[in-house]
Amino acid sequence: MLETIPYRPLTRLLREIRIRYYTHPWPDEAPSITIEDDAESFEDLLRNWFDFEGMLLSYRYEGEVVNLRRPAGEGTKDRQQEIHLRARPVDGEDALEVIAHREASRYEHKRAHIDEVDLRWLSEDELEAVITTGRLDAPDEA
């Protein structure tokens, strides 16, 4: 039965819908860091070493080439949290601008996730920690 589902065309359709209807401007106000890497290598590092995963159905920021998430402990009211990391190419350089925020889990707290309850942008130091150790060195994740 499952072999009859046209996964590739369905995935392409969902990706196109996401790009066309769920794209937002890049949040220039978010803290960011620049790393010297390409999108494929950076994504492989995050997936293979730090258990980040992709999700086809999430908002897309203009220009993003990496869009990954991973669990990140608990926030307020014992809500499970996740780190949502994105990256886009830096013009004229072989580099990526990286941003991330911490928010309620899309799986366990759908309404809070959509309503952006507990959402906060990671600082530059926190971004550095996430991409070098896989951990968020913040007081609320101890």
Number of helical segments? 4
Question: Stretches where pLDDT falls below 50 for ≥5 residues?
Answer: 138-142
The sequence of SSEs as H and E is HEEHEEEEEHEH
Q: Percent of residues in beta strands?
A: 25-35%
The counted number of beta strands is 8
Structural class determined from secondary elements: alpha+beta
| Reported CATH architecture | 2-Layer Sandwich
Q: pLDDT average, as an integer?
A: 84
The biggest sheet amounts to:
6 strands, antiparallel
Q: What can you see in these coordinates?
A:
By secondary structure, the protein is of the alpha+beta class. The chain has one domain (26-141): Alpha-D-Glucose-1,6-Bisphosphate, Chain A, domain 4. Helix content is 30%, strand content 27%. It is built from four helices and eight strands. Strands 2, 3, 5, 6, 7 and 8 form a six-stranded antiparallel β-sheet that branches. The longest helix is centred in the N-terminal third of the chain and has 15 residues, at 7-21. It is globular, with a radius of gyration of 16 Å. 24% of the residues are buried. Residues 138-142 have low confidence and may be disordered.
Write the layout of secondary structure elements.
Blueprint: H1 7-21, E1 23-24, E2 33-35, H2 39-50, E3 53-54, E4 60-61, E5 66-74, E6 80-89, E7 96-104, H3 110-114, E8 120-121, H4 124-133
